[in-house]
Amino acid sequence: MIDLKSTPHSLVENFDLVKGILSTYGPDKLHALRLKAFDNFVEFGLPTTKDEEFKYLSLRALTEGQFAHAYGATIDRYQVEQTKVGSIEAITVTFVNGEYAPELSSAHALPKGVFVGSLRDGFTVYEDKIMAHLGEVANLKGKLGSTNDERFVYLNTAYLSDGAFVYLPRGVSLEEPIHLLFLSTADHGPLVSHPRNLIVLEENSDAKILESYLGMDGIYFTNSVTEVVLGPSAMLEHTKFQDENLDSIHIANCSIHQAEDSIYTSNNISFGARITRNDVNVWLDGEHTETWLNGASVGLGEQAIDNHTRIDHAKPNCNSFEVYKSILGDRALGVFNGKIFVYEDAQKTDAKQTNKAILLSPHATINTKPQLEIFADDVKCTHGATVGQLREDALFYLQSRGVPKKEAQGLLVYAFAAEVLEKITISSVRDVLEKALFDKLKESQELPEQSEA
Amino acid sequence: MLEITNLHARVEDKEILKGINLTVNPGETHAIMGPNGSGKSTLASVIAGKSGYEVTEGSVVLNGQDLLELEPDERAAAGVFLAFQYPVEIPGVTNTYFLRAALNNIRKNRGEPELSMTEFMKHIKSKVQMMEMDNSLLSRSVNEGFSGGEKKRNEIFQMAVLEPVLAVLDETDSGLDIDALKTVANGVNALKSPDRATIVVTHYQRLLNYIVPDFVHVLMGGQIVRSGGKELALELEAKGYGFIEEELAAKA
Q1: What DSSP state is assigned to residue A138?
Q2: What are the extents of the domains in chain A?
Q3: Residue A412 · residue A396 · CB < 8 Å
Q4: Residue A429 contacts by C-beta under 8 Å, 6 or more apart in sequence?
Q5: pTM reported for the whole predicted model
Q6: With contacts defined as CB-CB under 8 Å, which chain B residues touch A451?
Q7: Which residues pair with B101 in a beta bridge?
Q8: How many other CB atoms are found less than 10 A from the CB of residue B135?
Q9: Min CA distance, A382 vs chain B (Å)?
Q10: How confident is the model over B183-201, as pLDDT tens digits?
Q11: Domains of chain B and CATH, by start
């Protein structure tokens, strides 16, 4: 680790400059959380590849860089519409460099008690509810695992300023999708922002959320934390689309707490950023829950994409299904670490994990590590990892119908990731992401030109 | 039109085809029958260009073009179509996208203009009806989650869309109930014309009640051991393949 007590770093130095203003956002209790998190961050330092949880991902661009604390910037509606996700019809909450941008957000009539907006605005209505959950989900206190690492959550909490807050009271089913849109632009030197999101779905409520991260200009570091609380029988389809610019660093922690009978689906799509690190941590804290973790990453050029997931099966009779796929070309690096902990009480757990990668170039790398730790005896846990080439039988089938080999290969690479996108049930989001996948693959040196559907 | 001469092929070290000779003229339907392991499916795969088969001798020529020199997609462009015994599932690629890509490549090779999405949809509409296919199958991934019958229907549907010069049906009847069998046969018969030909590879005579062959060939031990008219299929159905084996043994 890099010792921040002896090594000067902007991520430490920024704090003195902004803690005064941060203290004015939210209740005093929140500021106490910030101060404690900052101490923890300084105490535990920044990870290097010597740290188990960051073994394959070099963060030198971060540790050797200087990042100023980000303030909002002006982006107009037209620019937003020009982005890949700008035309999606949804209840939209937009942030620019981590600051809420009401002029780029959409006002909607919402059912009684529902809140979709910024965290800071949320404090005026739901302070108690926010403070009951904030910081309580994104932590590994008392959880299994000898290499648990919360450093980027400390960093995010230390600088906690704003982010999205979604609240659905009991029994509300929200038909219209929610879009949490995070835009970054750093045309005056490298910036860092720390979006902090909280999604609370009370008993029997149901929502579909798209969380997107897009970058415009410059070098920047996004360090986001999203906490999700699902009450009994609540249902959430949560799609994250990361398409930051290729000079950026994106580190995101998404932590989920599931009560009994709840269903959580995560579709985690990463196409952008120079360095990506996703941590998706699901805590199953009630019986008969269902969890679907779907992931698709495409890395080209010098991109590095590291997906760490962990599912804590703490209660009996829960099912989890996980499929993560990566397409890596050029000199790109992929990492997958899938932890499944089955606690002593969690009998009748059914957990299935799959990780698949396609390497388009001999210089692309994937490091894949399933990590199952099982302390109950009556469970069904399977895992599988494949790194490979395209399916020969499918290739021949396409060719035998007249599709040339190069084009058939391109089609199969697309299909490999598109299979994950098909899990998204909001058709407008699925269409946009399919198009984004198509465009992303066009940047590959190794794949041929495809005609569009 | 199709001229197969002294074709020998092997998989790894095992010789499977041991000198096949077969001439198919335009407008004709040929049935290739034979017991399991006789080399029927190998013959179909070699014509279509599946990898894993090594041709050690002989030639396969379609309208003057040496098929063995061509990639599978070039063979498709030359007019070959193989209806698979086990159609492949391709999650993530929709039927429509796939078929339009295939058709447009074939058209490009023939020097015809590509079809727009609208023109393409018009082209396939009647074929969908003919094959009694559910429209929703079009927007689904290729063969994914299709029942056995739907997969076979989809094969013949693709054939109807691509309009090949030479269609090779590899055990298309396996796993079909009688209604599906009739639909599949209707699709094949609808495509019959004086300038196209069909090779039906099958173990049983059943399909030949609906797709009536002009010639029946019996493949055994990697060679065509007997050829005849459609009555040969009925004789095989009645007597089994054993009687040919006995006759061959008697001759030897």
Answers
A1: S
A2: 10-392
A3: no
A4: A85, A88, A177, A210, A239, A241
A5: 0.85
A6: 101, 104
A7: none
A8: 9
A9: 22
A10: 899 999 998 999 999 999 9
A11: 2-90+164-251 (3.40.50.300)
